[in-house]
Amino acid sequence: MNAPLILPSRRMFLGTVGLAFFSTRGLFAEELIRTPPQTEGPFYPNHLPLDTDNDLLIINDAITPAVGEITHLTGRIFDEKGTPIRNALVEIWQVDSHGAYLHTGTANADKRDKNFQGFGRFLTGSSGEYYFRTVKPVSYPGRTRHIHFKVKRGGKELLTTQCYVKGEPGNEKDGIWRSIRDAKARESVTVPFEPIKESKIGELAAKFDIVLGLTPESE
Ligand SMILES: [Fe+2]
């Protein structure tokens, strides 16, 4: 599926985010914390999947979805002044429920969930919002749960980072998470994965806003 996937619940949980942002804009601008860069790691897909849309649960028009805790992952891309960035290409990649990446060098290659897309892209509109449907990543030897992010614009890479799960005991033992020395910066990449009340199948919602440390040239 190439069209961005939009679920009815999306507007609901993004609506409150927008309100909070606009009503405290001055304060928010002062408190903006640049999203710290993090290593790309060795598992950016070496062969992109046939389907690179923002629904990682379904590859093309497959009937069987990926296995895992369904997570609606959203956020907005801002510049350092708090201005939403449009036309930002947000890419994510992560392990499936067996700890396998979409990469020929992954661990657990034999157990890899063939229904999981492993990688996705979303191009932001004027609100700077992105949206992915994915699974909550599992931890694997040496790493706490995390989702890799890359933000590009006009073919330029602006940021490579990782997003973490708040309250995850493994965070404190993760050398890459700990390498972000500033506590507030670390907090900015560590977000709650919370149950969606209305969901009867236990879906989760996570919101990860990204603040780029530069103002991209206007179009
Ligand atoms: Fe990783």
Please characterize this protein's 3D structure.
It is a single chain. This protein has helices at residues 8-23, 25-31, 175-178, 183-188; strands spanning 70-78, 89-93, 119-123, 129-135, 146-153, 156-165, 190-191, 193-195, 204-207, 210-211. By secondary structure, the chain is an alpha/beta fold. Strands 1, 4, 8, 9 and 10 form a 5-stranded mixed beta sheet that branches. The chain has a 5-stranded mixed beta sheet with strand order 3-2-5-6-7. Strand 8 and strand 9 (204-207) form a beta hairpin. The radius of gyration is 17 Å and the shape is globular. Mean pLDDT is 88; it is low at 5-27.
In short:
By secondary structure, the chain is an alpha/beta fold.
Would you list the SSEs in sequence order as H and E?
Answer: HHEEEEEEHHEEEE
Radius of gyration: 17 Å
Beta-strand fraction estimate: 25-35%
Q: Kindly, what is the distance between the CA atoms of the first and last residues, rounded to a whole number of angstroms?
A: 28 Å
Mean pLDDT equals 88
- Structure classification: alpha/beta
Unreliable stretches (pLDDT < 50, length at least 5) are 5-27
Total strands: the figure is 10
Which ions, cofactors or small ligands are bound in this entry? Answer: fe (ii) ion
Give the number of helices.
4
Assembly state of the chains shown: single chain
Name the shape in a single word: globular
Helix content: 10-25%
Can you summarize the main beta sheet?
A: 5 strands, mixed
